[in-house]
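Exercise 3.2. Students should predict the tertiary structure of the chain below and write it as structure tokens, then compare their answer with the key that follows.

Predict this chain's 3D structure.
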Amino acid sequence: MSNLTVITPPAEPPVSLADAKKYLRVGHAGEDQLIADLVEAASVRLEQLAGLALVKQTRQLTWLRWPATIAGRGIRLPSSPFIEL
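Answer key:
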């Protein structure tokens, strides 16, 4: 069993609030928090489904016990692309 923890979250969302509001044709600030929350939720879900990191962040993968099934074969990391390991 493994655990993936975000150490340093993304500095900015993959889509800015201004761009999302422009796309949605929202001209007032009354819905800013809702739109920001929706962009964040969509980003998290897309990263889960695609196995991709959309923006730079630091993650830590730990195992409670080293899986015997991967001994000598290596592992597949849960998301990509990687800047460094």
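Discussion points: The longest helix spans residues 32-50. The chain has one domain: 2-70.
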